[in-house]
Amino acid sequence: MPNLRDLVAHTRKSSIELGLLSIDRRNQALVAIAHQLRTHQEQVLSANGADLALADDLAPALRHRLKLDEKKLQDMIKGLEDLAKLPDPLHHRTIHRQLDENLILQRISCPIGVLGVIFESRPDALVQIAALAIKSGNGAILKGGQEALHSCQILLSLIHQALTTVSIDPHCLELVTTRAEIMEILQMDDLIDLIIPRGSNEFVRYIQTHSRIPVIGHADGICHVFIDREVDREMAVQVTVDSKAQYPAACNAVETLLIHQDIAPEILPLVVQALRAHQVEVRGCSQCLQIVPDLVPATERDWAEEYLDLILAVKIVPSLQAAIDHINHYGSHHTDAILTSDPRSAQEFQQKVDSAGVYHNCSTRFADGFRYGFGAEVGISTQKIPPRGPVGLEGLVTYKYLLSGRGETVADYTMGKSFLHRDLPL
Amino acid sequence: MPNLRDLVAHTRKSSIELGLLSIDRRNQALVAIAHQLRTHQEQVLSANGADLALADDLAPALRHRLKLDEKKLQDMIKGLEDLAKLPDPLHHRTIHRQLDENLILQRISCPIGVLGVIFESRPDALVQIAALAIKSGNGAILKGGQEALHSCQILLSLIHQALTTVSIDPHCLELVTTRAEIMEILQMDDLIDLIIPRGSNEFVRYIQTHSRIPVIGHADGICHVFIDREVDREMAVQVTVDSKAQYPAACNAVETLLIHQDIAPEILPLVVQALRAHQVEVRGCSQCLQIVPDLVPATERDWAEEYLDLILAVKIVPSLQAAIDHINHYGSHHTDAILTSDPRSAQEFQQKVDSAGVYHNCSTRFADGFRYGFGAEVGISTQKIPPRGPVGLEGLVTYKYLLSGRGETVADYTMGKSFLHRDLPL
Lengths: 426, 426
Description:
The structure is a homodimer of 426-residue chains. Chain A is an alpha/beta fold and 426 residues long. Chain A has two domains: 4-216 and 378-399, Aldehyde Dehydrogenase, Chain A, domain 1 (3-Layer(aba) Sandwich); 223-370, Aldehyde Dehydrogenase, Chain A, domain 2. Helix content of chain A is 42%, strand content 21%. In chain A, the strands form four sheets. Chain A has a seven-stranded parallel sheet, sandwiched between helices. Chain A has a four-stranded antiparallel sheet with strand order 16-2-1-17, with no helix packed on it. The first copy, chain A, has a four-stranded parallel sheet with strand order 5-4-3-6. In chain A, strand 14 and strand 15 form a beta hairpin. Chains A and B meet through helix 9, helix 10, helix 14, strand 13 and strand 16 of A and helix 9, helix 10, helix 14, strand 13 and strand 16 of B.
């Protein structure tokens, strides 16, 4: 085993070659990985079985994430094949401009370089992230959850075999297994270009304070649904239930429901009944308790809580603006929805709510790279600067400026010549 | 004076209002600032005179940057008026997609929020940054060099007056004056969305390690020019001289010249002669010294040095690939140029050099927001992730995803319904 710095330096070197390959070669690699998974299902499931056997004290939700089965393997294979069909994210021209007659500026998309991706216990995340990295021409250092070690090792070994069969240096993707290695990697700002941590909020913050490398932070999801004064009752109940109960452990599940005071007496009992039918504990503000007295009383802390569980806080607000203010104050700028039949309310909400996703009449659970048609995602960024929201292929590329001339000097333009700045077709 | 956190919170609040204003209102503000500058030239020059009087121990180059005169004021006014003519960076739709028949996804550009911009001794930078912030709908906390304090204070006060005349809350832009305040601001990750530090490399690194807020790092400019085997001699000499001597204190000035060994015996003497005519000290590798014996011998340290001065290191390399390797190893990924008449060399260089700007047959000094047609720039980013290179208006906006439906739930799509993912016209 070479030392860690040498290993990462090798990944960097082979990532440059990967970024120069044609899209056909990169897609071939994805198809080859799908083939390896298809022909080695038993080995994967057996390695995963070893992880599960060692992890018998794991909470049921985490165990569910760790466990692979034939269905999940089929989904992984289909995901690879679908990704191979998506357009190339590289070589897009986003600026094409004559600075002067013979001085042509182009801005062209290109790989970022080497990604450091730290993900949780889901072994299928490794395949998804590796596939996105290959498609976008990036190298990656991967670190999965310790409890998924055997699964990650067999999956990476199959990916390496697949890359070898299509003559791509397999070292463009490497797995590290310890926390100490990740801490070391956070200091390699000359070799790693972007860190993508997935996991708890505290963990993401830890990474942000301990590295100078840019971080795509996938942090809290404190999402809201606001039921406005005028709304289709049945739709409002259905979307609220879906946003909370369809998969409460997801970051895009709703944590706080806001209800306009004019409709609260009528709709709150319906919503509570439907949520309780899905085993959701409802916590209410004092106004809510006047309408449905047997709710759990909500406290100030509930408005800033990411339950990730079958719990929902409900607050009655006097106006659309009060709902917007509450969301911008307590929310995590992830995904928030308004349910309303008034298009002006919807427009104002979508303009003023400062979140990556601002929805009208649909479930917050749609905030996801697959559902947006990105093929897959490496995470959902709650930072303000791009990439914001679900990060797919497009979030894994950068660009460079190519300028071509015939010997132009800046001195000429300080002594009389002026720029043309004429845009050419992209 | 309110406490700093209250001040920044007020800036945040008024930045939201700014971001909701029409482009006409934001442009009016720019024109109003231009008007204030035009009618208060004497006060500005007098405040600047006070700064200059206190700074008589300043190095000549810094004094030159600090000093305002009528020409610089005219440039500032023209810059504001030009910026007002540029298209609105907000409300651009970059994704428009039917996820399903009635479920429509849009990605729309919007302001980032509040910027923290730390700039050096040039008072005109304050006006430029303030103008870019207003145009892009962002609030900003500004911190200029201590030696420019009086100049910055009068300029900000004129900007505040201008904003008041067009009924925009002036507190969307604030000036802080001490280093202690900046240190406090670096911790306000709930109020500040992006830090843009301009200054020394050490300073940028310090900011990156002391804040969880994303940073657009404007760091070293170790730029290269490579003279290839086949090249127009006269053009090569002119572009090299311009890249070095036209303004050596700029980050886009060349620091190392690489020359293909086949052409070195012929071109090196010409380049040295021309550079010396511009008072440039030339430091050469051992091969260079065999051709021009009276060069200062270059050492390993010279290849990683940002002189920002009339000094140039020269190295002879055996091949195009050796030049690319040298640049990717020692460079700062800022701007690098190849001078060649061979289009294949140019293409390979532009593909393989991993820098924000990769040029062919023109001066590295073109790397600049004004010259690219961005209207102005807040800095040049040497990070790999976007915004990379000169950061203008487009680098000061982010986006949000708006999803509008008719009550769609995710549960429906896990039970049979499938996504359409059909792109609509932008």
